[in-house]
UniProtKB/TrEMBL annotation, chains A, B:
Protein name: Alpha/beta fold hydrolase
Annotated ranges, domain AB hydrolase-1: 61-314
Species for this entry: Saccharopolyspora elongata
InterPro entries: AB_hydrolase_1 (IPR000073), AB_hydrolase_fold (IPR029058), HAT_MetX-like (IPR008220)
The UniProt record lists the keyword Protein biosynthesis: no
Length: 340, 340
């Protein structure tokens, strides 16, 4: 086991359920300094686990463990933190409660403050649903978060994004072996089906037109090889109930649902962190237009589009060009004098 | 029964199978004149039947039945022409053979020439897979087709479009009730799942962002109402094997596979008809970029983008603005002096 677990005890969730004996799995990189002012939080994405985030951490990179203390908290439902697959009866499997972005961040805040005694974060950043948690950090703890760089995500799940996820969910649950969550074995036909549905969304038209999957750094032998090797492989190693729990969190992500705010517009105006929002130029479900709308409402925020043909996976750490582009922006943001 | 059936006899298909006692269902509008020079062919689209095309036909419109003789041939596999659902054993259901765009058009050509004795077509036009048949008409019978106006379609199915269809297919076939095509009752869970997958593709981000589904002329009460009422309703009335037959035709559509041509570039250069190609500005699976590429290769072709937020369904006849835009282009094209 290459990660730690923080015991949260019984947790009352935003939608009303109590998650008993809740666990937050996390991993840290680098050392927390004596002043406790070099910490960065970097949440995970849909189906991802902490090690899937490591491509953005390294010597000489913005997230340099010789300089910063990087905490990767695993999202609830991802199979390492409390999830349908690892929670005991009676809240296991199909009975695992509904979890919001707000819940995730509130529990991560407890980890950061109670376990480490950290009062300021130099940065929160994340990809996709990790970006959603990033916005939530900035809003929920404005006095604590100096900078944010959400990439390929949004503060509120758009209706089109919601519909895309309806298709993913419908494909997974069309497999009768799913059995409304009470499966004896994973519904592998459904997992493979959801992977094929996802394939057209995760990368864009140009990515397929130019057969980028067949070239370095991916280098798949054919389109079918890519669909099986990359896409089916990605979801077959996950648990169906876990995927559905995170999907619910994603579909219902809404920064405007934060207590004390009257909708997402009001919430965005409440962000105090220095902000760079980075959409992928051809992201099909987090399109740049949605981030433009946000950028205009967050005080002082900058929008910086990741150019190129990798769609949503511009933020997935799969190619060195996009990684360098994101890393450069992180360096620039970390070098800026924060307002507090 | 509001249509006619043309008996084709035994037909050898492009991929080798023989479709025995093949039937082509069609409907005509208006009268063929004595010179037989006022005919228009207007093929159907994925899952559509002839009556689904009628929105583009009417007094005062380009396709005016008081002036033109409009023939709508039903695509093979659509449930009216020879299809898995209506072909007797042994070529019924899961044994129905693979049908290409080329096959469809060759049989439509027999209808037009053998049944009606027509030697020249004023126009071929169609939406989506109907557009694919339109390109094929122009290439297969260059001396016969004066003008074409394919809208929201392509001459060759792109790899991204292929992947989108993989997702649709995977969702439908994840339902065990499908039983590899030997179902006793329709796999309704799979049909509903494929409908939800399709929903995010058929309309674009802006369409959902602005909740256009909730306004006139659609006027659905909620997003869920639209997903069930429009999308699930669209596919639940179809037969699963029929849908899979047409999906195969779509995935393998390639004008460049026409005998005598060395790929799609060569094929496009062989089109002699006066051509206006009309993509929907925000069509997610037939994006304008793919039509631009074609337009540059068809001698004298014009590209005219249908503006707006209706995605692929800009060509679906659902709103009067897009209908008028397409109708205007058809009028303009029909008014142009053809080269022969």
């Amino acid at each position: 086991m290459d990660y730690e677990v923080f015991d949260l005890g019984d947790v009352r969730l935003q939608r009303g359920a109590t998650l008993r004996d809740a666990k937050l799995a996390y991993k840290t990189y680098g050392e927390l300094n004596a002043a406790k002012d070099n910490a960065i939080v970097y949440p995970t994405w849909y189906s991802g686990q902490h090690y899937d985030n490591e491509w953005l951490i390294g010597e000489g990179m913005a997230l340099d463990p010789s300089r910063y203390f990087v905490i990767i908290p695993n999202m609830l439902g991802n199979g390492l933190s409390s999830s349908p697959s690892n929670t005991p009866e009676p809240h296991d499997r199909a009975r695992f409660p509904e979890v919001t972005m707000h819940d995730n961040v509130r529990l991560q805040h407890r980890l950061v403050t109670e376990r480490f005694g950290i009062e300021r974060l130099e940065l929160v950043t994340g990809w996709s649903m990790g970006a959603g948690q990033t916005y939530q950090w900035a809003l929920s703890y404005p006095e604590m978060v100096r900078r944010i760089l959400p990439f390929c995500g949004s503060a509120k799940t758009s209706l089109h994004n919601f519909v895309f996820l309806e298709g993913v969910k419908a494909a997974l649950t069309a497999d009768a072996q799913w059995h409304h969550g009470w499966y004896r074995e994973q519904p592998v036909t459904g997992l493979r089906a959801m992977a094929r549905v996802y394939a057209g969304w995760g990368f864009c038209q140009q990515f397929y037109r130019e057969q980028i999957y067949s070239r370095e750094p991916l280098g798949y032998g054919s389109l079918e090889d890519f669909l099986v090797g990359f896409w089916e492989g990605l979801f077959l190693k996950r648990d169906a109930n876990n995927l559905l729990t995170m999907l619910w969190t994603w579909q219902h992500a809404d920064l405007g649902g934060t207590p004390g705010y009257a909708g997402v517009e009001d919430a965005l105006a409440g962000i105090r962190a220095m902000t760079i929002i980075m959409p992928g130029e051809q992201d099909l479900y987090f399109p740049p237009e949605d981030n433009e709308w946000e950028q205009a409402r967050i005080p002082g925020a900058e929008l910086r589009v990741i150019p190129g043909a990798w769609g949503h996976f511009a933020g997935g750490g799969l190619n060195p060009v996009d990684t360098a582009f994101i890393d450069d922006a992180l360096k620039e943001l970390l070098d800026r004098e924060a307002p507090f």
